[in-house]
Design a protein that fits this description.
Shape: globular
CATH class of the largest domain: Alpha Beta
Strand order of the largest sheet: 3-2-1-4-5-8-9
Largest sheet: 7 strands, parallel
CATH topology of the largest domain: Rossmann fold
Distance between the termini: 16 Å
Length: 372
């Protein structure tokens, strides 16, 4: 099949492309590299700034490239807003893609209308990026921006339009599946995120008696939104109480390759506090053998049909809970090699990019069969 993967977040589409190519398909990835992370892509469509000249240049680049987006069997969108444009500018490009290709698949992989709306109902999730119990987390500037854009702004209509029109919707996490399946039960399919294990460098083995090294990747603009602030405060308390038993490695806004190298010397990674599930950053870390402190609720294991492994240290959105669970690990370093091995096995079972690509291949072939 000829497959176009349009846009990328956290290396999902590039990693999927590697799996699909290994299965013999022709794949083209078009993206901006996900900003400063600079992920690989076949066609670079990058908006250098929001300035007038760069905006005209970006629009010109899109228009010049659009004729290449024809005659594919499958076009998969990373998000309903798949170009770095206002939501109300996307529809003509979507309609061109729809008209000139056989099938369109919408990815539910990140921020969008259905995610914001579902989180804010305060019923679907016990906690999320936008709620803790019945309390809506609307005080954070980041959350206010997302609510304005995706719930009430110009991104909502294009999301609704594309979701209704697409041939299938693929959800990459349990939470996203909860957002789309009630509205589109027949065309929503959960497929885990892919990890290319052959490209993952295992972390350096921890020697007995060494401090446990905690890795914290910080995006300043999303620090409070993702809960890194709370987790870091809890970890610093652990460090203050057990100064010789743990170390903290902090990195901020570095390119993907450098980020990976810095991660390789650590034992534990702090991930998203308000998540039920590990996403791409945490999955890559697990493939290296790091232990994730973050989202590992039972719903995550259930959707994967995983009945044995429990490698993730699941924390609640509460500083004291984070402190107690990280302190427990520091006081019981014998758990580190056990959870490290489980983490690697978990990725082999559920996220190997070839296994994941085979699930996508089955979905794409089912769409092709329905042509007849």
């Amino acid at each position: 099949m000829r497959i176009l993967l349009l846009g990328d977040y956290s290396n999902v589409h590039w990693t999927l492309s590697e799996g699909l190519r290994a299965l013999g398909h022709e794949v083209c990835v078009v993206s901006d590299g996900d900003g400063w992370k600079n992920y690989r892509r076949d066609i670079d469509l990058r908006r250098r700034s929001l300035g007038k000249m760069d905006s005209f240049r970006y629009l010109f680049d899109i228009l010049r490239t659009m004729p290449k987006f024809r005659d594919y069997d499958i076009v998969q969108l990373i998000n309903p807003v798949f170009f770095d444009l206002r939501g109300d500018k996307i529809k003509p490009f979507y309609r061109f893609i729809r008209r000139h290709n056989k099938h369109v698949v919408l990815g539910a992989f990140g921020m969008d209308h259905y995610w914001v709306k579902t989180c804010l109902d305060c019923k679907t999730f016990r906690y999320s990026d936008f709620n803790i119990g019945s309390h809506q987390r609307t005080e954070e500037p980041y959350n206010q921006e997302f609510i304005r854009d995706w719930l009430h702004g110009e991104k909502a209509p294009i999301n609704l339009y594309v979701a209704e029109d697409a041939d299938a919707i693929v959800t990459g996490l349990y939470e996203y599946d909860c957002c789309y399946r009630p509205h589109f039960p027949r065309k929503t399919q959960f497929i885990p995120f892919p990890i290319n294990l052959s490209s993952v460098t295992p972390k350096a083995p921890r020697q007995p008696g060494q401090p446990i090294r905690f890795f914290v990747g910080i995006q300043r603009s999303r620090h409070a939104y993702k809960g890194t602030d709370i987790m870091l405060r809890a970890l610093e308390r652990v460090k203050a109480k057990h100064p010789d038993a743990c170390e903290i490695v902090k990195v901020e806004n570095v390119p993907f390759q450098e980020y990976q190298q810095l991660m390789n010397t650590s034992d534990v990674i702090l991930d998203q506090l308000y998540s039920y599930t590990p996403a791409m950053n945490a999955l890559v870390a697990m493939a290296k053998g790091l232990i994730v402190v973050g989202g590992g609720e039972e719903e995550n294991y259930e959707i994967l049909h995983e009945n044995q492994l429990r490698p993730i240290i699941n924390v609640l959105p509460d500083e004291e809970d984070c402190f107690q669970k990280m302190e427990h690990l520091v006081l019981h370093p014998e758990l580190v090699p056990v959870l490290s091995r489980q983490s690697v096995e978990y990725i082999h079972r559920h996220h190997d990019h070839i296994k994941v690509a085979q699930q996508y291949e089955a979905l794409y072939l089912s769409l092709r069969l329905n042509e007849k």
